[in-house]
Design goal:
Helices cover 18% and strands 40% of the residues. The protein has 200 residues and is of the alpha+beta class. It has one domain: PH-domain like (Roll). Strand 3 and strand 4 form a beta hairpin. The longest helix has 13 residues. Keywords: Signal.
Length: 200
């Protein structure tokens, strides 16, 4: 999948200092209340850029900027707007077939988790807007607790040329002449071993 947009979002978030409150006791209590999670279940919280890609769709990550609330029951990917927290997607370990990362589990880069229906791209950030290695490791450990593999490098490649095409339309630059053209694209697929995954 193309993760350049996710890395660009990391840079823009750092420059804009777009922090989401989560570290104060008041913010923690509000998170617990609005997400319906017990304080004793929370393992860690981190700002997290994320996106979900359904298999067969174009493999481009339009990342959302939010929080990753890691609990003993799952990873609650959370959006913050208007002073309130809202769960956008909950990823549970029993639904995860495998994970992948481009270089290694210790490298500052996104980690991907795959369910039967979709892939989730995750990039946890610390208070300075930089890669959060501790949260990254915790996500891997909690999402892959039952022997699900973490695929590295080419083994975790999850995009391929689609046999479909898409129509791109616009205006010819400098004119009022419209145009439309058909382009091929890379589609998302599930790279998990066939013993654990589907959607190949």
């Amino acid at each position: 999948m193309r993760i350049k947009p996710l890395l660009c979002l990391l840079s823009s978030c750092t420059l804009a200092a777009c922090a989401i409150p989560y570290q104060t006791p008041e913010a923690r209590h509000q998170i617990e209340r609005e997400l319906g999670v017990d304080a004793n279940d929370i393992v860690s919280i981190s700002e997290t850029n994320f996106c979900a890609l359904r298999y067969g769709d174009e493999a481009v990550c339009h990342a959302k900027i939010g929080l990753g609330v890691l609990t003993r029951k799952g990873l609650v990917l959370t959006l913050y707007s208007g002073g309130h927290y809202r769960a956008d997607l909950t990823l549970r370990s029993e639904d995860v077939l495998c994970g992948s990362t481009a270089t290694s589990r210790e490298t500052p880069e996104p980690v991907n988790m795959y369910t039967r229906e979709y892939a989730v791209v995750l990039l946890p950030l610390n208070e300075q807007g930089k890669w959060n290695g501790s949260m990254h490791a915790q996500i891997i450990d909690y999402m892959l607790p039952n022997g699900q593999p973490l695929l590295i490098g080419a083994d975790g490649k999850s995009s391929r040329p689609s046999d479909k095409s898409k129509v791109v339309a616009g205006m010819v630059p400098g004119t009022k002449i419209p145009y439309a053209t058909t382009l091929g694209y890379m589609e998302q697929f599930n790279p998990c071993p066939t013993t654990t995954g589907e959607g190949h």
